[in-house]
Backbone:
């Protein structure tokens, strides 16, 4: 329970920072999507149950603020979590570069899947893609910068909650 | 061996269970959960907005007395011209009411103006929304029109305890009826594609064939008043192009929206007054 709460609080901090950043970038019509950060640390390093619960809670927070069916983010994040959980033994957990690559690839997959669910609303779907690709490029650049910091923040949150950092 | 096979398939089994649970959960539970998660995080949004206001306040405190005196003089000039406009407006309202009485016309909707601070902007390629710092606590209803000095901002999409979410006119999900200023034929307006580093745009459909619009000969698009949500005559944007559509019966065009939509800090919600 403490593990899930510590991870969820970290996700809330991430959500708050990303929303504030998007608020600042709104005038430039730029939007960053950091969905994979809600998933990656928990999927790569945490036990199955608490990690998945924290990921779903993070997804539900995103759902509450988006005009999408409630649970869409949570389901996509859960799917990404389960996929990462399956391959996590092959990812070097202590290597920052490997973590960043995993986060970027996961974010790419989540962004594309989410876009395909939303593109039908757009008046001209074909013309919407350049904007989405620009947003994706900005998101990936941001993720490459903040992934090590956010992983460290989650590890610190777990330490404060007095639970072990890695899945025993 | 069968146990190992199931272990490999466990993530997919878990995902299947999650999907089934999500489908089976009643809508009421989902709605309650959405509201709960929103209200859980609403104080964070409001606190960040208030901190921003405080920062602006302290930045303004840095101005010298001379600058404040000049700003006060400007404000006084603006206020005097507005006072004149307000008196004229009252006379026009009285005249409209008199004519409605004489001709027995149905009266226009009356509104209460509720000014609200913008706490958060959320401008993605999928949707364009803002969160304002007033909600059910100020009697703001769903679907209420939201305006600013440049025209229409959008309409209230969701109302929460102390905040409300406004869907902008640049959002692809928003559709409404407009007319070209001075014309009476309705045109369908929809939020459009909002390119990066460019002003927001919309899409005009069902534009009559005789309407010619180019960047040099742009036409102002205003609300039509049809549908009852938006009062007539509010500025939507400028129609900068009109090309014949695939059916050959109407034209389709691009509507350039006000650039200030991306940097709004204060908006006005038109709360309809219920007439007895």
Residues:
């Amino acid at each position: 329970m403490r593990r899930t709460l510590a991870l969820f609080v970290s996700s809330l901090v991430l959500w708050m920072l990303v929303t504030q950043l998007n608020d600042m970038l709104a005038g430039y019509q730029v939007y960053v999507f950091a969905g994979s950060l809600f998933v990656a640390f928990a999927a790569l390093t945490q036990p199955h149950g608490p990690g998945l619960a924290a990921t779903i809670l993070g997804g539900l927070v995103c759902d509450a603020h988006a005009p999408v069916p409630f649970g869409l983010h949570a389901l996509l994040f859960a799917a990404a979590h389960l996929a990462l959980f399956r391959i996590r033994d092959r990812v070097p957990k202590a290597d920052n570069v490997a973590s960043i690559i995993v986060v970027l690839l996961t974010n790419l997959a989540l962004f594309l899947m989410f876009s395909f669910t939303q593109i039908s609303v757009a008046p001209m779907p074909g013309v919407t893609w350049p904007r989405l690709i620009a947003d994706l490029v900005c998101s990936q650049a941001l993720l490459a910068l903040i992934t090590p910091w956010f992983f460290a923040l989650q590890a610190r949150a777990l330490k404060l909650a007095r639970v072990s950092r890695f899945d025993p | 061996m069968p146990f190992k096979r199931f272990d490999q398939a466990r993530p997919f089994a878990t995902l299947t269970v999650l999907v089934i649970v999500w489908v089976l959960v009643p809508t009421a539970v989902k709605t309650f959960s959405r509201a709960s998660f929103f209200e859980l995080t609403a104080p964070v949004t409001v606190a960040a907005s208030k901190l921003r206001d405080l920062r602006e306040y302290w930045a303004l405190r840095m101005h010298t007395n001379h600058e404040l005196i000049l700003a006060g003089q400007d404000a006084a000039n603006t206020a005097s011209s507005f006072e004149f406009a307000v008196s004229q407006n009252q006379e026009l309202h009285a005249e409209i009411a008199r004519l409605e009485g004489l001709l027995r016309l149905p009266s226009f909707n009356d509104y209460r103006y509720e000014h609200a601070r913008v706490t958060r902007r959320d401008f993605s390629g999928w949707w364009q929304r803002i969160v304002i710092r007033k909600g059910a606590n100020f009697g703001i209803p769903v679907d209420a029109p939201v305006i600013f000095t440049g025209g229409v901002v959008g309409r209230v999409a969701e109302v929460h305890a102390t905040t409300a979410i406004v869907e902008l006119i640049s959002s692809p999900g928003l559709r409404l009826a407009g007319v070209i200023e001075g014309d009476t034929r309705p045109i369908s307006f929809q939020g459009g594609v909002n390119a990066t580093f460019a002003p927001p745009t919309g899409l005009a459909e069902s534009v009559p064939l005789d309407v010619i619009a180019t960047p040099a000969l742009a036409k102002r698009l205003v609300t039509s008043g049809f549908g009852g949500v938006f009062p007539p005559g509010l500025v939507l944007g400028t129609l900068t192009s009109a090309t014949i559509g695939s059916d050959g019966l109407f034209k389709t065009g691009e509507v350039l929206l006000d650039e200030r939509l991306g940097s709004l800090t204060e908006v006005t919600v038109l709360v309809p007054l219920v007439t007895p």
